[in-house]
Design goal:
82 residues, alpha+beta, 48% helix
């Protein structure tokens, strides 16, 4: 293992571009739900870097902020499904 590899594994650096699975995880949803939001146009298209699709965390933050907030009544009831 090289020194660069060892450092990247012990101290991962923050990244602006995330893979599909990482983007879904970042939003707190499943990859299939992420795909659904993409099809609905609620998630911006990916950036292509060297043939690889990546999503910008800044754009994902906007997606997250657009999700509705639960009602006050629902906040008190853990059995309510959205």
């Amino acid at each position: 293992m090289t020194r660069a590899t060892a450092l990247s594994q012990s101290r991962p650096s923050p990244r602006r571009g995330l893979s599909r699975v990482e983007a879904a995880l970042y939003l707190g949803i499943s990859p299939s739900k992420f795909d659904e939001l993409r099809k609905e146009g609620r998630v911006a298209p990916a950036h292509i870097i060297g043939g690889r699709k990546v999503w910008d965390v800044r754009e994902l933050d906007l997606v997250f902020e657009a999700f509705p907030l639960e009602s006050t009544a629902a906040a008190d009831d853990w059995n309510v499904a959205v």
